[in-house]
Amino acid sequence: MTKLAWTDALSVGIDLVDQQHQRWIGHFNSAVEAIEASLGKDHIIRNLSFLVDYTATHFSSEEHHMAANAYPAMAEHKSKHDDLRQTLADLVRDFEEEGATQPLADAVETFLGNWLIQHIQSVDMAFGAFLREKGVKIPS
After folding, report:
1. Is the CB of residue 16 less than 8 Å from the CB of residue 61?
2. Is residue 35 part of a domain?
3. What is the CATH number of the domain that holds 39?
4. Predicted pLDDT of residue 74
């Protein structure tokens, strides 16, 4: 397993968003480890459920700040969030139906890991730049 690691290159320059991304990465790594080690259905579902719940919390927070600051690319950004929400729901369903399979571990590790890094480095960076340009500071 290739763990995701937080680096300064992933910082969008908004403390709350960066802290949420760091926490998400930690739980992403835990979910992949749990699946790969076949730690048991309860342990794995807790990790996957946390990712689903925390993703919803994080996206809701970002979307709230987008709306509050009239972010012009909100619709496109939210659409990407909605796509990931659906993918996470599909992964949880696959786990409930098939268990901790290697294809599931690969999908979580590869798809979610790549999605998160690409999302942060593109759309989240643009959102962070927008907030910084407006002088918006979101307390953590």
Report:
1. yes
2. yes
3. 1.20.120.50
4. 97
Q: Which domain holds residue 101?
A: 14-62+70-129
pLDDT 10s digits, 17-31 = 999 999 989 888 887
Query: Which position has the token pair 């901790």?
Result: 100
Instruction: Determine, yes or no, domain membership for 120.
Output: yes
Q: Mean pLDDT, to the nearest integer, of 67-85?
A: 95
Which pLDDT band, with edges at 50, 70 and 90, does 104 fall under? confident
Residue 2 and residue 15: Cα distance in Å, rounded?
Answer: 26
Structural domain count, the chain: 1
Query: What gap in Å lies between CA 129 and CA 76, rounded to an integer?
Result: 16
Closest CA to 128 of 81, 84, 83, 77: 77
Helix 41-68 to helix 15-36 angle (10° resolution) is: 160
